[in-house]
Amino acid sequence: MLRTGIVGLPNVGKSTLFNALTSAKNAQSANYPFCTIEPNIGVVNVPDERLPILAKLCKTDVIIPTAIEFVDIAGLVKGASKGEGLGNQFLHNIREVDAIIQVVRCFDDPNTIHVAGKVSPLDDIEVINTELALADLASVEKQIAKVSKVAKSGDKTAVLTLSVLEKMQNLLEEATFININDHFVDDEIPIAKGLNLMSTKPVIYAANVSEYDLKDGNNYTKQVQEYASKHKAEVVLISAKIEEELAELGEEEAKEYLSELGIEDSGINRMIKSVYRLLNLLTFITAGEKEVHAWTVQKGAKAPQAAGVIHTDFEKGFIRAEITPYEEFVKNGSYAACKDKGVTRLEGKDYVVQDGDLVHFRFAV
Hints:
The protein is of the alpha/beta class.
């Protein structure tokens, strides 16, 4: 399952946002640092308006959406890379996630203490980026010491690995998030990814604002957006308090509340979509009388890879994939009608799965 870590300095709204994400009050929220010590974990369904429509057409009550695991990680302070605060625990937990949501405080409130004594989103981002880079740098330097000995013998793999490590070392000294594809060539990319460094994980900046700035943002959010655009990161404007209130409402009440605020979709839904966009993911669907089930794959995945997401036997014994585009299924109302119209087709091993494909895999064990 996809894992996303929610990080940020103390008192920026991380736990409040986590509560809203999971609609569960199991992340203690308090106006002092380190109120979240062990990482709280919550599994959140990915909103997909197509699933209930398909369930109605397939005459089933069972809907299984895709899901993302969110980890609310302890607040970090300057010096975390050297073990300050809960730094060591923080760094261990963040290494295990696929993407990072960095909650950045973009609101003024004299009643909520800021750990640095002032609100400055770019300073906050710099603290976190620096601590992650320093911790990664220490890890890379240790590996350089080990690999360099083997590289001296002329071992080609070690020579290439050393080259990647030294290039990574130079990048980390700039203390910023690193897009591997921008800095490494084809044979270097697998090695760079295999290092599993925190500074190379995709980032979404959740600019936490008051309800009054949710629609248009403010000067703080503009700073964050400018920073993110330079570093190929995503930004979502979100009001953690509003999201927590929305989590207490029914679907229709929530829509009405959002409408009053002049917002079409909740910040959480926009954030989940950003995770998918950032990680280059898409959803294909298996649908029938038994259930409607959504599955997640990387964009560019071929049919056998998609089959393997459901079960490894499906990939090993893959024969064909029966594909029906979602729009055609809804338009025609059934698989039988889609086959009659010729919009359902059989695809082989080279077919690249598209978002919204309804798929039936043919395989032999």
